[in-house]
Specification:
The complex is a heterodimer of chains A (about 270) and B (about 290). Chain A is of the alpha/beta class. Chain A has 9 helices and 6 strands, in the order H-H-E-H-H-H-H-H-E-E-E-H-E-E-H. In chain A, strand 4, helix 8 and strand 5 form a beta-alpha-beta unit. The termini of chain A are far apart. Chain B is of the alpha+beta class and about 290 residues long. Chain B has a 6-stranded mixed β-sheet with strand order 1-9-8-7-6-3, sandwiched between helices. In chain B, helix 5 crosses helix 7 and helix 8 packs across helix 9. Classes of the chains: A alpha/beta (about 270), B alpha+beta (about 290). Chains A and B meet through helix 4, helix 5, strand 2 and helix 8 of A and helix 5 and helix 7 of B.
């Protein structure tokens, strides 16, 4: 069995060779936006002008296309949120001292983390112990394997991405765990990373393609690479972003918006 | 108000900075300024009886965006989200002045300093210093992460080499009407810079006569109130600094969606903002009456 990447090897897979990064097609972002605008305008044509905007994120995309509906907070979801918070801490400060305490404090600092903190507080002792052990194991491996990122790579964590379309009647949204690389100077410069504490799933790639699309629309340049890092196993799924990846993300987004718009019309 | 088209050049910071500091004339003559200010003061004076006794009212861009619905009485609390702008501005200032090379290094230094100051009894007033010093490593790490992301967005928005002189970073402007001293207008702009001298020259003697340009960084996506949200820092500048030229323009930048909106500050922009401020003040007065 191959050892998961760590340190310099992991970094090399995220950053690649600078000379190999693609030159940005300056018409690409505008073309993708027009494609989305055309499709979305048609999808929402029957909606009232006063209807609230359709807000799309990766979960709603997934659900609209037949995926499992999001449920109330579960223990795996709590673990994911805690790992996300600690990943952020590791990338930003370079260290993890007391993962359990720090993760709960980080989540408790914001209203959005309250459901996770409440869920953890309500766990029976045996499940709590299992969660603690799981978190300790994953974060210990993360701290050993994840490399420090040089400050001039301008790493941003939990960066919000959005794209208002059809005059704001549809808003595509996302929050990417990690973006590395400064603004494009003619070549693609950004790598987007999502961190997962659970098992590998095929839809994780589609999530990243969606984020690559949002990044292209907002920056005028596509990311050169997207990656999913699995903290349970240390696996790193890396994919270069090309026109096909972005085109597929547009098609998937349009399919989902059509479903969401039709659902809204039926319930109106 | 104009949505700036996505420039077909990279990096985009050069184009945005060029738009921000392009040479400009003062678009509002002194008589127009007096008329705008007079109408605002008169409108607020009419609301004074309803707002009497209130000392803590503020109209800022969030109040304008929410139609005063969010001007609630909940006490302010520091959190990673509420602290990120102040920490991020300190960091960008450090980068612009050459004290730090990157926002990540600058934010780390800013937080270390804040914690040290608070621990030694030198916390700055209205700063997150004391909160940071009391916070544990987990909360401090999120605060640092939020500030790094925010500061990096501002730092990479502009080409800092293109400013003729050092821009002012993050100095909020305030103004209080004589008739309603308990109500403050807050003008937030992340960057204030002088517009370039016409013809590209940089004669020092003309600097005080040239209008400024403001850049404001906003979350989310531009909404229907964007025009008055951008107009507010220009209006407060006019109110707080009667002797200065009217700011020439305000550029709004929404980093999450990569949209820029340009508001040339003319009489119409100021009048619309006055209408929005009076509307918000009226809503506050109604709430005060109900309470």
């Amino acid at each position: 069995m191959t050892e998961p990447p760590s340190g310099a090897e992991l970094l090399e897979r995220l950053r690649g060779d600078l000379a190999d990064r693609p030159v940005v097609d300056l018409e690409l972002a505008g073309g993708l936006r027009e494609w989305l605008e055309d499709g979305i305008s048609a999808a929402v044509a029957g909606r009232s002008e006063t209807s609230p905007p359709i807000v799309v994120d990766k979960q709603r995309l997934h659900e609209a296309l037949g995926g499992e509906r999001a449920r109330a907070t579960t223990t795996p979801m709590a673990l994911g949120a805690m790992v996300d918070a600690l990943f952020r801490q590791l990338v930003t400060t370079g260290g993890l001292d007391d993962p359990w305490t720090d993760a709960l404090a980080a989540l408790g600092a914001d209203d959005r983390g309250a459901p996770v903190v409440d869920h953890v507080a309500g766990l029976p002792a045996d499940e709590l112990a299992e969660l603690r052990a799981d978190l300790a194991e994953q974060t210990a491996a993360l701290a050993v394997r994840w490399p420090p990122l040089a400050p001039h790579w301008l790493a941003r964590t939990q960066e919000a991405l959005s794209a208002p379309l059809a005059g704001g009647r549809v808003v595509l949204r996302g929050v990417v765990d990690l973006a590395v690389g400064g603004p494009s100077d003619g070549r693609s410069t950004v790598c987007l990373v999502e961190v997962k504490s659970g098992r590998r799933r095929i839809e994780h790639r589609a999530d990243l393609h969606y984020y690559a699309l949002l990044e292209t629309l907002r920056a005028g340049a596509p990311p050169f690479r997207v990656a999913t890092y699995y903290t349970r196993t240390g696996e790193l799924d890396v994919e270069d972003v090309d026109h096909e990846v972005l085109a597929n993300a547009v098609r998937r987004t349009l399919d989902a918006v059509s479903v969401l718009a039709a659902g809204d019309e039926e319930s109106a | 108000m104009t949505a700036l088209p996505l420039p077909l050049v990279l990096p985009r910071a050069g184009a945005l900075t060029g738009t921000l500091v392009a040479p400009a004339d003062d678009l509002v003559d002194p008589a127009e300024r007096r008329a705008v200010v007079g109408r605002l003061e008169q409108g607020l004076a009419q609301l004074a009886p309803a707002l009497e006794g209130r000392h803590d009212l503020r109209i800022d861009r969030y109040v304008l965006a929410s139609g005063a619905a969010e001007a609630d009485d909940a006490p302010f609390q520091w959190s990673p989200r509420t602290a990120r702008r102040l920490l991020g501005l300190d960091a960008v200032r450090a980068c612009a002045r050459g004290r730090c090379r990157t926002p990540a290094e600058a934010v780390a230094a800013t937080i270390d300093q804040a914690v040290r100051d608070a621990s030694e009894g030198r916390a700055r007033p209205r700063s997150p210093d004391g909160w940071l010093a009391a916070a544990g490593p987990g909360v401090r790490a999120v605060a640092r992460a939020e500030a790094v992301t925010w500061a990096t967005q501002l730092w990479t928005t502009l080409d800092w080499r293109r400013f003729a002189g050092p821009p002012s970073i993050g100095r909020d402007e305030w103004w209080r009407a004589r008739a309603v001293p308990g109500l403050a207008l807050q003008g937030r702009a992340e960057v204030r810079a002088l517009t370039a001298a016409p013809g590209g020259g940089e004669p020092d003697e003309s600097a005080s006569l040239r209008p400024s340009a403001l850049l404001t960084l906003l979350a989310g996506t531009p909404g229907p109130t964007a025009r008055v949200e951008l107009g507010l820092p220009a209006l407060v500048d006019v109110l707080a600094h009667p002797a200065r030229p009217t700011p020439a323009r305000v550029v709004g930048w929404w980093p999450a969606c990569g949209r820029a909106v340009l508001l040339p500050v003319d009489r119409g922009a100021l009048e619309d903002t006055v209408d929005a401020v009076l509307g918000a003040a009226g809503a506050l007065a109604e709430r005060a009456a109900i309470a």
